């Protein structure tokens, strides 16, 4: 009897244990289901990380942002690259050349005493600069005497300065005396002031256009003509002697007035006192500019409402697709994106940056990521006193001239948007030694910025350097004749072919181990193959005599889709055109 009772007891205990385990399992399943319901999906979790990265990424630059299995960690240093980030490769073989040729007759031989040309410029300082340069060439085409140009005093910029308050007018007249006769004002006619006949010419007007449209008016009717709204009114392609005249005007004759020049030199000196080298950034991030672009800069509903309200001021602007704008490279880089691009290109947190900008949308909040990456952050307002800037602060063109000088003298110039100032400085820096000038390859970079949280910093930086090849201000980046002449003054850039040939021979000998002792003692010259890129990726440039329809590597692989401000302006909105001009 005892044995069956023991078996029955063991059986009951086993059943109780099974029931207990089942109950515990049920509770755990219910708890797991409850937690699964509350937890976000993997996609939502990743989206949170991306959003957090976008909004507060640079609060602490050294903190990594993890997404999946990869880590995006921005280093404080620029890393070690096999190139000099402060100079352009092969720049020593190129130089500016705008001397007059023997066949270019002197002004006194071609100027007609009864022909006078006056012009009224349009836009901001840099757009007016292009107008002044082209006016001298137009006067030469017409064999006319040029009256010192009138500056735009009524546009969006509302600057009452005249020519002599911005530029050295006496130097302007004397330095061009062999090319064009220039006078300060029209002579009186019959003892009375002479009012010229006013007219306009179409944009990109050629030599023949001026001879057919303007010259007959001067000869047959009035002898004095004023061309109004004179901006981009001369063709991009002209005879070589006329192109060189453009360069003599832009790079030699247009010198700022002494007060501006001296204050500009003071600002440059103060930057040099802080650091041996510095970067200058021309930052176009004003509310009006962003509203016009129609792009999305990550500010959410608040940003869309604020910029949308500004955009409504211009009735001719249609609704844009923000994603399409960015894909086409039409969106200015944000301050944070500029900072990331510079770090990837090798510039560390110890680099000093001078920022030339107007009102930045979002103020300090927008600038904080850039300042976190580059704490040595300056502007004319931080390195000069209010008293020092007082003679200039009420005049937008004079303030812009100060920024122009500091940017021109910088070791590296970078822009977030290809406006007039950026293009003029790009051309000027090529002419005076090909100093590094960084233009963002916006069409390629935008995808990289969007997906940066899904890659390591090393992968990101490598791709930035690849995409920026052809956008760094190196010699022969852009095909001669392509783009605006003020940005690419190819007719005024000459090559020292003899020195280049010697350098190439030296480099080949070094590569093949055939240098003699005397050659080893010579100065080492950087050759085409000494860079941090794979030789197979480097663009190979055809000869200048190649067929006109040849597709150059720059156009095929690296064409910068960031259009100029001017290209996108609606002519029915004069205020908008003036605002975007610089």
From TrEMBL:
One of its GO terms (molecular function) is glycosyltransferase activity. The chain crosses the membrane at residues 20-39. Residues 502-582 are annotated as: Disordered. Keywords: Carbohydrate metabolism, Fucose metabolism, Glycosyltransferase, Membrane, Transferase, Transmembrane, Transmembrane helix. Residues 513-525 have a biased composition (Basic and acidic residues). Residues 570-582 have a biased composition (Acidic residues). InterPro entries: FucosylTrfase_pln, GDP-Fuc_O-FucTrfase. GO terms for biological process: fucose metabolic process. It comes from the Eukaryota. Pfam families: O-FucT. Belongs to the glycosyltransferase GT106 family. This is O-fucosyltransferase family protein. It comes from Gossypium raimondii.
């Amino acid at each position: 009897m005892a044995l069956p009772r023991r078996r029955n007891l063991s059986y009951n205990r086993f059943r109780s244990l099974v029931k207990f385990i089942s109950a515990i399992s049920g509770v755990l399943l219910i708890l797991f289901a409850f937690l699964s319901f509350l937890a976000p999906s993997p996609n939502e979790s990743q989206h949170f990380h991306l959003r957090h990265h976008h909004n507060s990424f640079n609060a602490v630059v050294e903190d990594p942002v993890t997404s999946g299995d990869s880590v995006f960690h921005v280093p404080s240093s620029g890393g070690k690259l096999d190139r000099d980030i402060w100079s352009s490769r092969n720049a020593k073989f190129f130089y500016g050349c705008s001397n007059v040729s023997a066949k270019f007759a002197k002004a006194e031989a071609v100027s007609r005493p009864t022909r006078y040309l006056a012009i009224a410029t349009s836009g901001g300082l840099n757009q007016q600069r292009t107008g002044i340069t082209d006016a001298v060439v137009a006067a030469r085409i017409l064999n006319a005497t040029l009256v010192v140009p009138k500056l735009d005093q009524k546009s969006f910029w509302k600057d009452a300065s005249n020519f002599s308050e911005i530029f050295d007018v006496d130097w302007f007249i004397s330095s061009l005396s062999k090319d064009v006769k220039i006078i300060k004002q029209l002579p009186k006619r019959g003892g009375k002031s002479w009012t010229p006949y006013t007219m306009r010419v179409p944009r990109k007007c050629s030599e023949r256009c001026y001879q057919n449209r303007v010259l007959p008016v001067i000869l047959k009717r009035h002898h004095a003509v004023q061309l109004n709204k004179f901006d981009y009114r001369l063709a991009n392609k002209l005879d070589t002697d006329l192109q060189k005249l453009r360069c003599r005007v832009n790079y030699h004759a247009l010198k700022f007035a002494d007060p501006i020049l001296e204050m500009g030199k003071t600002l440059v000196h103060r930057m040099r006192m802080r650091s041996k080298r510095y970067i200058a950034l021309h930052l176009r991030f004003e509310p009006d500019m962003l509203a016009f672009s129609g792009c999305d800069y990550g500010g959410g509903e608040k940003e869309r409402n604020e910029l949308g309200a500004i955009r409504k001021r211009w009735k001719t602007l249609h609704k844009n697709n923000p994603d399409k704008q960015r894909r086409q490279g039409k969106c200015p880089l944000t301050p944070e994106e500029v900072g990331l691009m510079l770090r990837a290109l090798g510039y560390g947190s110890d680099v000093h940056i001078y920022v030339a900008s107007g009102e930045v949308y979002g103020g300090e909040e927008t600038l904080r990521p850039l300042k976190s990456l580059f704490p040595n952050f300056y502007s004319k307002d931080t390195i000069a006193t209010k008293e020092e800037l007082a003679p200039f602060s009420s005049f937008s063109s004079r303030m812009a001239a100060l920024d122009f000088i500091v940017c021109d003298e910088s070791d590296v110039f970078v822009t977030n948007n290809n406006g007039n100032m950026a293009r003029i400085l790009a051309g000027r820096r090529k002419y005076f030694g090909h100093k590094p000038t960084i233009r963002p390859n916006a069409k390629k970079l935008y995808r990289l910025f969007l997906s940066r949280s899904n890659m390591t910093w090393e992968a990101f930086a490598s791709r930035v350097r690849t995409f920026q090849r052809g956008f760094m201000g190196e010699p022969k980046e852009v095909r001669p004749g392509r783009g605006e002449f003020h940005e690419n003054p190819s007719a005024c850039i000459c090559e020292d072919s003899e020195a280049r040939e010697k350098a190439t021979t030296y480099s080949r000998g070094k590569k093949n181990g055939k240098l003699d002792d005397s050659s080893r003692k010579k100065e080492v010259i950087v050759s085409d193959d000494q860079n941090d890129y794979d030789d197979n990726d480097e663009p190979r440039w055809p000869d200048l005599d190649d067929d006109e329809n040849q597709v150059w590597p720059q156009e095929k692989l690296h064409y910068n889709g960031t259009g100029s401000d001017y290209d996108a302006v609606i002519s029915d909105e004069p205020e908008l055109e003036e605002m975007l001009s610089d």
